[in-house]
Structures are given as structure tokens and as C-alpha cells.
Amino acid sequence: MSSIELGAVVIDALLGMGVTDVVLAPGSRSAALALAADRADRAGALRLHVRIDERVAGFTALGLAKESGQAVAVITTSGTAVANLAPAAMEARASGVPLVLITADRPAHLVGTGANQTADQVGAFGPSALGVVRLSSESGDADAWAAGVHRAVVLAEGRRSRQPGPVQLNVEFATPLLGELPPLSSRGLEVSRSGGHTSVELDGRRTVVLVGDATPAVGVEARALAEVSGAPLLAEPSSNARSGPNAIAGYRDLLAGVGADIERVIVVGHPTLSRPVTALLSRADVELVVVASSASWIDPGHRADVVADRVLLGDQDPAWLARWRPADAEPGLPEGLTQRHVADAVLASLGAGDDLVLGSSSIIRAADLSPISPAPPRVFANRGLAGIDGTVATATGIALAGRRPTTVLLGDLTLQHDLGALVRPAQEPAARLRIVVADDGGGSIFHGLEQGAPAYADSFERVFGTPQGVDLAAVGSALGWRSRMVRTQGELAEALAGDAELIVAGLSRG
């Protein structure tokens, strides 16, 4: 059979498994996949998103899958193009986001011969991939090819393992690469999902519900658990649980006080933002109950006592929650324009119909101290590995998938890591995206770490702070974004109420 037939079968099988979004980074070896995907897009069978940069394509697919919860395929050509998917693959693995990484390849017999754009790319993502499925136009038939795609999607979505993540689908195409596409068809496979949920009943000892990075659905369940039982709710910004009467805004600053009396922690999602929380999860005197829906669970301190699919928590003493409320009084903020001012203002400007994407550096930690909103937006962040790369591309994918107004709040270095995502392809649909940059001229997060000690002051700016002096508003304007620079709280409020697409808030370092 031919390469064009293989490309058609791959796309048909994706459709049959319910895949609705494909991201393509163009190339020659992936031509059959590109033409088949374009045909399906024209027929209204899927949505094709074209990106010229493979790293941006990977993170765009990550955002699409993160918002939808369904597998998204991303296609690259062979060679170094494959390696550019690695950052998104690593994040998807750590976050449990279903991606099918379709890497076009030369025939296996050309590996090691010096043939153009040929590398040993099978298994290129190492432990980041849940598995590798290999297809070749030189072996197998349409049924075998479709079965391989089915396996890749099932594995990526965790339909049997309950552990979603990225899967490499390596597809070898021999020449000739093109020809006439066979008729469009849908090759599906019905696969039952794993069951056997385990519920654990817990008594009413002093408990807090700690919620880290989580999907909106998981966040809603965690909030309900806290409210039904009367437990304090300690929710990170991207937990999607940070609202309601039980949510404690400044919880991480309270752990050394009232937190000393915690007897049990119920962990939901992936909490990673602060060292006080890490210390809490390592305490030997605290029972640690981890709620996990996949085969793996969060236990960095190796202290988990119970791992369960769901828990039933007994009623808490009302005095326990009451002890957290006076301690949670909001302290005054300094004058000027700080990260907290920016985070508070952005959150206050958004409602339940909006989406917010937070950069994984100091700005998300500022948002972790912001007041509780009565009707918060859905919040997303790449907290699986907490890298700052790909944030704008991820936000673009979320905005395209959700079709909701989306704001991305990030630092200046985080934006500089993803400037390529500011390029909006002329023939592609535009995302409803607004970018707010807390620009403090470098990596201020290091001031709060060991590197910020006076002993390292001589080297700090060069090797940690790394101020770049880039006029980000000018960069945005040059790329067609309506940009505005603000330096006061009043200017920020005015910009948030206006039509600016890129708002750069100039902050002071320190």
C-alpha cells in the first residue's frame, strides 16, 4: 500500500476515535497526513490548526487537550522537528494531558545511512511518552494501521489505564509521498473505560482539603467536598476550586499558625506552588489522603497514608473552619504597582464566563494570595513540570478550544520564552486572547530563593535575574497586537477595561 493511503487511514482512524482537533507543523515527509487532515477540515469532520513552529504547535495542542480533556493530535515532519515537541510532551506527561504525537519518519532502513533529514526518532520522547506505536507504509494494511492509531488514542486518553498523557505515533512514509487520496471514512473502535472506583470514608478529625492544579471538573468536586463537610479549602489558583465560603485566600501564610493543628490533609490535583505546602505534606503527624483518578498519585514527601478514587469526609467541627477566618484577614498592600496589584486587578476584571491562563513563575504565586472571587474564571496553568515555556501557545489552544474570552497573565521572561506564539497566522482563526505582562525586568522569583542571598549578589543579575530590557509593548505592536504600557494602578484598571490585547505593566524589581 502507499504513503498517501497510510496518511488517509491515520486521519480516518483519529476521527473514528473521536479526535476533533489536529495541529499541523508543515513539512515534506508528513505531506500525506497534511492533505488528509486538510480534507477532513474542509469536510467539517475536524478542526485543523496550522503552526509554522513545531514547539508552538506542541503547546497549542497541549492547550486544546487541556481544555477539552480529549486527545489532540499534533503532526510534525521528520528530523529535528520531532525534538521540538519534547517540551510539550514533558508537560503533558506530568499533567496527564492526552496528546497523540504523530511524527512522520523516513523508512527504518535509511536510519544510520546519512540519508537526508533521517534520525533514529522512535522513542524520541523517552519517559515522557506513555508508549510508542509504529506504522509504516512498507508493511501492514489499512486494518493494521487503523488498529495502531486506535491503540495510540486509547493509551493517550487513559481509557484502560486511567492515566492519560502523550503517546508517540511514529509513521514511516516511503516515496512516492503523494497521490490520490482514497475516499474519506471513519475507522473507530469501541473501548470500555476502566471502572472499580474506590471510596474511602473518613472521620471528622481536623481536616483541610488541599487542591493543586486541576481540571475545572475536578476542582468543582473538591470544592463540594470541603463545603459539604465544613472543612477549610486551601486551593491554588489553577485548582478551579478557589471560590465559595470555605476557601481561604492566604492559606500558605497561615500554615505556621493555625495550620499546626491540622490532623489530616486531603490532597486533590497537583499542589506545587509553595514550600509551606510541601512541608505540610511531609509532616509525620498529619494523615495524608490522596485523591487520584489515574494510576499515579501525588506524594513528593513519601508520606501518603491513603490513595483513593474518592473520599467521603465526616462533618467537621464548625469551630475548626472559624479559626481560619480571622487569620485570613487581608493585609494592606504597598504603594505602587506590584505583582499582587496586577494579579488582583486581572482576577477582579474576570468572571465565570472567562478563562485565565497563568504563567508558572512568581505571578501565579502572587495570584495564590489574591482575594477569593465570588464568580471566578476557569483557571489553567502548566503546573505538571512548572516550566515557563509555551505559556502563550497553551493559552491560544485553550482559547481556540473553549471559544471563551481568555486572558493570559505572565511575567516578562515567560513571554520572551514564547514570542513565537505572538505570530498569528494570517489564514488561521484568531483566538479571543488578551495578554497581561507583569514586567519586573527579569527573574524576580529568584529573590525569594537561596540564590537571592547577599552572598550571591555579585552574580545575581547576570546568571539569575537576567534582565533583558526588551520593550515588550513595542514587540507586540510590531506583531499586530494592540499594545499598551502601564505604570500605575489607575492605568492598569483603565487598560483592563479597554480594548488592549497586550498590556505590559511596568513594575519595580525586588
Report on the structure:
The chain has 510 residues and is of the alpha/beta class. It has three domains: 3-172, Thiamin diphosphate (ThDP)-binding fold, Pyr/PP domains (Rossmann fold); 199-327, TPP-binding domain (Rossmann fold, 3-Layer(aba) Sandwich); 339-506, 3-Layer(aba) Sandwich (Rossmann fold). It has helices spanning 3-16, 31-42, 54-68, 80-83, 86-95, 142-157, 216-229, 251-254, 275-281, 318-327, 339-349, 362-367, 391-402, 412-416, 457-465, 472-478, 489-497; strands at residues 21-24, 47-50, 72-76, 99-105, 132-136, 166-172, 199-202, 207-211, 233-235, 264-268, 287-291, 306-308, 310-313, 355-358, 378-381, 406-411, 433-439, 483-486, 502-506. The strands form four sheets. The chain has a six-stranded parallel β-sheet, with helices on both faces. A six-stranded parallel β-sheet has the order 15-14-16-17-19-18, sandwiched between helices. The mean pLDDT is 91.
Characterize this entry briefly.
The chain has 510 residues and is of the alpha/beta class.
Overall mean pLDDT stands at 91
Count of alpha and pi helical runs: 17
Unreliable residue runs: none
Rg, Å, rounded:
24 Å
CATH architecture term of the largest domain: 3-Layer(aba) Sandwich
- What is the terminal separation in angstroms? 63 Å
Q: Write down the CATH class of the largest domain.
A: Alpha Beta
Number of domains: 3
What is the number of E strands?
19
- Note the main sheet: 6 strands, parallel
User: What proportion of the residues form beta strands (DSSP E)?
Assistant: 15-25%
The rough form would be described as globular
